Structures are given as structure tokens and as C-alpha cells.
């Protein structure tokens, strides 16, 4: 059974995900603005709704970690079982967020294992959990694992087993942009572009291949090299990249999920509301 602390972590993770969804313009990703495209608006509303369906599963993951007390193979197996059940619930609510669930689930569990821990310790804790194999996982290969094997990309599993280096890069980008005077939306977009500029996004590899992935990485670097989202040149480059990726139907979903993970870690340690009964 989850505690107030577990529920607070879960809600912080959902807030991080919905905060990522609210950003605009996100190159190739669902946009909350009314652009006159029904499919885009529907996708965004559905994703926001289904994001909230993650909360019970994330709270259960936090509770499992707190109860287990260590990043053991048993905890990894339990998190996998909870994750598969949560994926089913999210599917009933509209679907999406599979990559974000993997990232946020591990980070929430790591935060529950180390109450009050800061970012470096949380990503290190997630790495220890991810180092174990989930013996109960289905034997069929996922799309992400098939793409990883084909192209030699780290994929979501490799990112976690490396201690989420792109979550850490996003955190550094957030801090740098805020210090330079960017508002919160600009800082978060710069962090997303930082992840996009180097991540071997398996979703992009699947839809666009290696050349398409390099095209997206170069586009993200171009925005940052133009000064980022706080400058006129950077904003112009961002809008051009956004239009380009939407026209090609290329979506860097892996980068979006890792940004959500960074936004969650950024608010740690999470405190419960003393007014909550």
C-alpha cells in the first residue's frame, strides 16, 4: 500500500510529464497550441489525459522500492510487473508514455529508496535498479530493442543502465539557461534540444533511419548554436525545425521522455503537503 510520500513522488512525476507536454513549440512533438490541426490537438489532449493514469502505478513503484529497501533483482521484477499493468491502464485512458513510464518509474523508485537524495544520487540509484534483468518480462522483442540491436543504439535500457546521462545533460542545460536569464519555458526547451542533439533516439531510428536521426540531431544543435530559444535567431531556427519535423512526421519521443525525467529529478526532494490527511 502506498504512503503519502509515495503518492507525492508519483504526482511530481506526472507533473513533470504534463509540464513537458505543455511546452511549445516542441519539434516534431504534440503541440498544445491551436494550430488548426484536429489530429494534433486530439493527440495532445489524449496524452495529457493518459499521463494522469500513470499516477497509481508510479505510486505503487515507489511503495515497492520503499518496502524492498534496496535495488535488488526482486525490486526490478516487481517494477516490471507494475509497469506492464500500468501500461494496460494507460492504454485504456488513451495510450502513450511507454518510454516516459520506464524513465519515470526507475527514477521514482530510486527517489523512494533514497528520501531527500539529489539528482546525481537518484540517477545512480536508477542505474543500480536497471542493471538487473527482469526475468518475468515477455520474451518477444520490443520495437525499441529490435531497433537498438539493428543499429547498435543504447536505447531506453542502455540509457538507464548508464545512469541516465541525457537526464543529467538536461539538468545541466536547465541550470545554464536559467542562470543566463531564460524563463522556465525557454530553459525547458533548451534542455529538450540538448537531449535531441546527441540522443540515439530509437523512435527516430525506426521512422527515419540513421540519416534522419542525424538530420534531427543537427537541427537541434543548430538551434542551440544560434543562441537557443532566448534569441531571435535561435527562435527562428526552432520554428523552422518544428515545421520540418512535423512535415516529415518524425517525432523525437525518446528525448521528450528523458526531459520529463529531468523535470522530475529537478524538483527533488519532493515534500508531502502537511495539510493532506
Number of strands: 0
Uncertain segments are 34-42
User: What is the CA–CA distance across the termini?
Assistant: 16 Å
Backbone CA Rg: 18 Å
Strand content: under 5%
Q: How much helical structure, as a percent, in the residues?
A: over 70%
Summarize the structure.
The protein is mostly helical and about 280 residues long. The protein is about 70% helix and about 0% strand. The protein starts with a helix and ends in an 11-residue tail after the last helix.
Description:
The chain has 277 residues and is mostly helical. 70% of the residues lie in helices and 0% in strands. It has 13 helices and no strands. The protein has helices spanning 4-21, 38-52, 55-68, 73-92, 98-113, 119-130, 143-151, 155-161, 165-179, 184-196, 202-225, 232-248, 253-266. It is globular and about 50 Å long. Mean pLDDT is 88; it is low at 34-42.
Task: From the structure above, extract its key features.
70% helix; globular; 13 helices; 277 residues; single chain; mainly alpha
Write the topology of this structure:
Elements: H1 4-21, H2 38-52, H3 55-68, H4 73-92, H5 98-113, H6 119-130, H7 143-151, H8 155-161, H9 165-179, H10 184-196, H11 202-225, H12 232-248, H13 253-266
Amino acid at each position: 500500500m502506498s504512503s503519502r510520500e509515495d503518492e507525492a513522488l508519483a504526482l511530481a512525476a506526472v507533473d513533470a510529464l504534463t509540464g513537458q507536454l505543455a511546452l511549445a513549440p516542441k519539434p516534431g512533438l504534440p503541440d498544445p497550441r491551436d494550430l488548426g490541426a484536429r489530429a494534433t490537438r486530439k493527440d495532445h489532449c489524449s496524452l495529457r489525459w493518459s499521463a494522469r493514469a500513470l499516477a497509481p502505478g508510479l505510486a505503487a513503484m515507489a511503495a515497492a522500492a520503499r518496502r524492498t529497501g534496496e535495488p535488488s533483482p526482486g525490486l526490478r521484477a516487481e517494477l516490471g510487473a507494475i509497469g506492464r499493468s500500468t501500461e494496460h491502464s494507460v492504454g485504456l485512458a488513451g495510450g502513450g508514455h511507454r518510454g516516459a513510464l520506464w524513465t519515470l518509474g526507475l527514477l521514482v523508485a530510486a527517489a523512494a529508496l533514497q528520501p531527500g537524495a539529489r539528482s546525481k544520487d537518484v540517477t545512480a540509484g536508477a542505474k543500480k535498479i536497471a542493471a538487473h534483468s527482469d526475468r518475468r518480462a515477455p520474451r518477444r522483442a520490443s520495437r525499441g530493442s529490435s531497433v537498438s540491436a539493428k543499429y547498435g543504439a543504447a536505447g531506453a535500457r542502455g540509457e538507464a543502465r548508464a545512469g541516465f546521462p541525457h537526464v543529467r545533460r538536461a539538468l545541466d542545460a536547465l541550470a545554464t539557461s536559467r542562470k543566463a536569464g531564460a524563463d522556465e519555458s525557454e530553459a525547458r526547451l533548451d534542455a529538450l534540444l540538448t537531449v535531441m542533439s546527441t540522443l540515439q533516439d530509437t523512435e527516430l531510428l525506426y521512422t527515419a533511419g540513421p540519416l534522419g536521426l542525424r538530420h534531427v540531431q543537427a537541427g537541434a544543435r543548430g538551434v542551440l548554436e544560434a543562441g537557443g530559444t532566448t534569441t531571435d535567431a535561435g527562435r527562428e531556427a526552432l520554428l523552422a525545425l518544428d515545421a520540418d519535423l512535423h512535415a516529415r512526421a518524425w517525432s523525437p519521443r525518446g528525448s521528450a521522455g528523458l526531459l520529463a525525467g529531468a523535470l522530475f529529478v529537478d524538483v527533488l526532494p519532493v515534500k508531502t503537503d502537511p495539510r493532506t490527511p
